[in-house]
Amino acid sequence: MSTKRIAALRTQLKKENLDGMIVIHGDHVRYLTGYTGSNGLLVVDSKSARFFTDFRYTEQAKKQVKGAKVTIADRGDLIAYLKELPELNRKNVRYGYSPDYLTVAQRSTLIHTLNKAIVTAAPDVLAELGWVKEKAEIDAIAKAAAIADEALARVLSLVKPGVRERELAAELEYQMLMLGSEKPAFESIVASGVRSAMPHGVASKKKVQKGEFVTFDFGATVDGYVSDMTRTVVVGKATPRQKRIYDIVLRSQLAGIKKVKAGVMARDVDEACRKIIRKAGFGKNFGHGTGHGIGFFIHTGPRVGAQSEDKLQVNNVITIEPGIYIAGWGGVRIEDDVVVTRSGGRILNKAEKKLLEL
Hints:
Elements: H1 2-15, E1 20-23, H2 26-33, E2 41-45, E3 49-53, H3 58-64, E4 69-72, H4 78-81, E5 94-97, H5 104-113, E6 118-121, H6 123-127, H7 135-155, H8 165-178, E7 189-192, E8 213-218, E9 221-222, E10 225-226, E11 229-234, H9 240-259, H10 266-279, E12 291-293, E13 300-304, E14 317-320, E15 323-326, E16 330-333, E17 336-340, E18 345-347
Parallel strand pairs: 1-5, 3-4, 5-6
Antiparallel strand pairs: 1-2, 2-3, 7-8, 8-11, 9-10, 12-13, 14-17, 15-16, 17-18
Helix pairs in contact: 7-8, 9-10
């Protein structure tokens, strides 16, 4: 698998007129080689792939790295070590890097170290890798989705007045780990009451109160692959307004899923969701895209939004997550992970989507 991924990277390098790529971000390194350690660097050119780490990871690198020659550097600063590689220090050789995953200091060190080469930001080279999944990748995402489903089921009994959002988030992440997740896919969101109107309201010390919405947005990780789901519940009996808002979002989400099919433009899936919310009079309260691709990375392509130019392909895995957010009152979001097939969308999450009154 690593050999195929590195070959795909070389194809991208050719498109971008680059002689090679310097891969530093841990998730990218793992995706391309299988290495899970915290200090690793990969250099790929048209003929070779070389992986670098330090002494601490000698045995781990030998066991895990596939598709690249392993070199144990004599120093921990792997970027500075690149100065010793003749192929990277030739005049006018063009090497790319991903600017979104380098600190300012790392970028400065990279450019200073390779002062003979042309070192250029190449944000698109790695961004488009892995959009179309193999069966093993989809299986891993499905396992991560199943873990998230079960973890939520275990936590719902704890949702009651007086419990803090952070306590619910901690229990959710603990249950995912106990069920086999490597780590949370991202910082878990637990937002209650007026905070549920914050699309990215990560868990706070706020106490849940009776009559409030509570939104859970979280995911598990299996073999490096992530899931991403959202459910919104009510503490106690729902009011007519809460039921109405929830019903609109649920209908919107189901319409988006129904639209999913290979060959469909991603923006049309977004519109299927947005149309229902807009007709209900809440268009201004749905201010983010309908979804995004997931896989080895929590945000990848295709992008499911109004301006997206991406077309859905067989074995894309995307999220469908419309929402309505009303400042000072609360909000609702519902999200599933969906595999794109030739005949439609296959939902990976099994957690209940009817409005739960806890």
